[in-house]
Amino acid sequence: MNMNITLRHAFALSVGGCMAYGSAATAQNTCLTPEPAVIPAAIADAVKDLPEAIQAAFAGYGSPVVASPYIDFTSDAERPWVVGYSNSFSGNAWRAGALASLEASMETYRAMGLVGELIVTDSNGNITTQIQQMRSLIQRDVDLIISIPGSPTAMNGVIEEAYNAGIPVVTLASPVTSPYAINVDVNGFLYARNTALGLATLLEGTGSIVAIHGIPGTSGSELFKSGADSIFANCPDLKILAELTGEWSNSVAQTALVQWLASNPAEIDGVWQQGSMFMGSVQALEQAGRPLVPVVIGNPDQNALAFWRDNLAGGFSTVGTANPPGAGMALSLDAGLRVLLGQGLRVSNIVVAPPLIDDVSLADWVKPEFTLESTGVGEPKPGSWLLATDLDSYFVTPGAIQ
Description:
The protein has 13 helices and 9 strands. It has helices spanning 3-15, 41-47, 52-55, 93-111, 127-139, 156-164, 188-202, 219-232, 250-263, 278-287, 302-312, 325-340, 388-392; strands at residues 81-87, 115-122, 144-148, 169-172, 181-186, 207-213, 238-245, 270-273, 349-352. The strands form 2 sheets. A 6-stranded parallel sheet has the order 2-1-3-4-5-9, with helices on both faces.
């Protein structure tokens, strides 16, 4: 079987089927040729005026989407604008990459005279503290706030306060339910669905797998699970032997998988996991003396990409996807500046359909300097995460940031 052709064909059927948004699909709904994911009815009206190709990113999307209150907004503040960054915690490589990207983008726009000071806050996981810190940013009269909120609902009140003060709030990869926020997000449903379909295709629709989830009960973990289930539920010959909890942690995932393997001698053909738990899963297989099987890559940690590259020639193959912190943060700042410039945001959420990374496109993500000791997160080629022309589609009067 030509694996790369098959993977790309399956991916096109899964996401490219957006052309049918809720209409009856003509293709038979089988394991490897699923019916297209559809846009939820609750948000269909809000996105109906976006181009079809942009609407595709909202298939299966799990957060509320409404018409943006910033459609007629223009900042009356003088340049250079002051930007506040409200972070819920900073204790991992993803968060470090996001902050580094924001600082680099600020330098670019500072040289253009658009922005000046960047004020950074970190609540260390305490949502009450984060609310207080955002309120402090409002009192300091910043012009734009970018935030990774610690809750989808708890900060709605302070976000509305910012809106009433004329300060747009952009969230990154952690959408809130407030209509006054600008949520820049990756579609978690498609994120999981695409990797599940990719794994099913690698296994030709048959075999036994272990699924490792994040934190069961949280909205993100449950959305990822629903995306994967939309594929696995239609694969009767692909058996899920166990569903483990990895808490999006390599060490927790490794312990959970080692313990399960110790008491379950059944052979497994693959591991589907929903985040940065690749190396923990691989190390668990090695520790248990099990053969190396395809382990899905969620966020493409640099060490995971290096492992894939280094073992590709030996026959190792897998699939992955991405929610890159650097590209996501750069997009968040761009979106916020466009709002300040009065370009007229159409909808509350700017959503990216995540890519499928396979053996061929791996080269676009892994860099020669990545090793098993690397601690960062892989990033896409500059300018490729969401094309400027696609971002234009979200605005009434799009234009260059200047």
